[in-house]
Amino acid sequence: MLNADPAWKKQLLKKGAEVAAMLSALLDKKEVNLASLPPPKDPKEDPELRLRRWLDAIDRAIKAFGTEEYGRCAVCGEELDPRALADAPWLMNCTKHPPV
Ligand SMILES: [Zn+2]
After folding, report:
1. pTM recorded for the entire structure
2. Does some domain include residue 92?
3. How many angstroms does the Cα of residue 73 sit away from the middle of ligand 1?
């Protein structure tokens, strides 16, 4: 089983709070810089949708943390590279199955 570093959970929670704050700023019609988000599915994807999708992914990783499901590719179930997870603990896909 993947040896998840408890520090990753902190990173996840921090990132989740960051993205939630961005979403509420956006809903308040404030200027929000989305440069730190994963690339949009479509260049014209609505910023609110992008933020919600991203927040959702972080949430799923937080819920999966500490279970067998955490750190596995959502498509093939293969364990992800712990070095990649250390950089981005919200990863849910292996390099062969990038999210679409
Ligand atoms: Zn995979």
Report:
1. 0.86
2. no
3. 5
